[in-house]
Amino acid sequence: MRDVWAPRGRRVAAAPVTFRAAAITFRAALAAQPATFRAAVAALAALAALACLAGEATAQRSQLEQRILRDTLANGLEVIVVPNPGVPLVTIEAVVRNGAFTQPPEYEGLAHLYEHMIFGANSRWPLPGAFMGRLGELGADFNGTTSEERVNYYLTLSADSIEPGMRALAAALRTPIFRADEMDRERQVVIGEYDRNEADPFYNFQRAMGRALYGSAWSRKNALGERRVILAATPAMMREIQRRYYVPNNTALIVAGDVTPERALALARAVFGDWSRAPDPFAADPVPPVPPLERNSAIIVEQPIGNSIVVMRQWHGPSARGDVAATYAADVFSDVLNQPTSRFKQRLVDSGLFQSIHVNYYTLNHTGPITIMGETSPERLTEALAALDAELRLVAQPGYITAAELEPVKRQRTAGTMFSLERPSGFAHQVGFWWSVTGLEYFMGYVDAMARQTPAEVQSYAARYIVGKPSVTGVLVSPEVRRRLELTESAVMR
């Protein structure tokens, strides 16, 4: 999973890339896509040397168990400690199972607005700016992010400031005030983010695809939200989000860096132990299932992107807690097809039909998308679409993916996981994402489960979720190119 982390002091939702006016920077667009490079850093190619040293992807769980310590307080708060004494810094991160997936239409975007508000006044620092001032005194690098199924808040600071840092984070989590003046200001900050995204061609494309893919469930995928909802938000709505979701038994505390497990756990008990347990928010208010796609559809989005064309096709993928086995196969499938030497790339990129193409499954508990996205030219669009269709009819056939192709991607996953352990703050974010979306047990066993994948399991995944299954096909194109091609939805939906 790749998140877009904001610079120090900024609190933003993961946002798509901004295109240059003349041409699409497709590599940057891929970087902005939430990609399920799940247990690794983004550029796995840079880890090739490590992969050679990693050996077979086996017994990874036992190695992680030695590095990740876990405990659960009496109030249900899960505490996860990842010691790394290499640098005298510590990251303290709170992860809440909240995000877009909890949003009915009238709350669309408010999980993100809440994330902004948590850095405002609280009962310990009730004056405007006082809490931010305290973080500055501590020298903390602070941030928060909102995605579909996770909200996180973190501080990275000197290891000798761990106790005041944890107490500051606890005050923000437990006792926010939601001052009307601060809410007016933060509402405009969020609207500014919204405006910047609306000016981005790729954001408009992603939003149109998401609406087509998820239909009535779109509000539960749209972390940035809708302008009218954000402008109408009230402090009472913030307090309702707090009451439902910001409770210890829906939260994990992750402490990573130069700290002993004993010290971290003792501080967690002292600071958070009297936080009262609450009812399970999802027992009282279950998240409705995403309605299935019934048929193929196509959309064309016109934006000023020059002479390039982006093609995207999406399907409903497996749910992380509903079809666990398929999520492993999905990642292997994507990794193999993304290899430069894969049959998929040879047929579609080496042939010149696409300048680049990428396959991705984004792991979510509530129906993550499977995405194929490629860049082509106006002259090759029709041929490229036909070739993509033809290739997709073959991906579930025996022999399309071989056992020999699986081994390199398994080793890359192993190397990536261990490499990521060496950067405590990044690893804390990674662990927090998996805790919220799948549960930490999934992450602990992920590499070992990947190592057991076979071509037959990968073929089964492709047959169940891709080949012949309803999908949405989108084309991002400039108005001028569309007019020249006389491009219609029926021509896109082959």
Summarize the structure in words.
This protein is of the alpha+beta class and 494 residues long. The protein has 2 domains: 59-284, Cytochrome Bc1 Complex, Chain A, domain 1 (2-Layer Sandwich); 297-492, Cytochrome Bc1 Complex, Chain A, domain 1 (2-Layer Sandwich), CATH 3.30.830. The chain has 22 helices and 11 strands. The protein has helices at 26-32, 48-54, 60-67, 110-117, 130-137, 162-174, 180-198, 201-214, 227-232, 235-245, 261-272, 281-284, 324-338, 343-350, 381-392, 403-420, 424-437, 440-444, 446-451, 455-465, 479-485, 489-492, and strands at 69-72, 78-83, 89-96, 141-146, 151-158, 251-257, 297-302, 309-316, 356-361, 369-376, 472-477. The strands form 2 sheets. Strands 1-2-6-3-5-4 form a 6-stranded mixed sheet, sandwiched between helices. It has a 5-stranded mixed sheet with strand order 7-11-8-10-9, sandwiched between helices. Helix 6 (162-174) packs parallel to helix 11 (261-272).
Compute the number of helices.
22
In the CATH hierarchy, the third-tier topology of the largest domain is known as Cytochrome Bc1 Complex, Chain A, domain 1
- CATH architecture of the largest domain, by name, is 2-Layer Sandwich
Helix content: 40-55%
User: How many domains, as an integer?
Assistant: 2
How many whole angstroms does the radius of gyration measure? 23 Å
User: Strand order within the widest sheet?
Assistant: 1-2-6-3-5-4
Q: Which spans of ≥5 residues are poorly predicted at pLDDT below 50?
A: 1-58
Tertiary shape: globular
CATH superfamily of the largest domain, by name, is: Metalloenzyme, LuxS/M16 peptidase-like
Q: Which class do the helix and strand fractions yield?
A: alpha+beta
- Name of the CATH first level of the largest domain: Alpha Beta
Number of E-type strands:
11
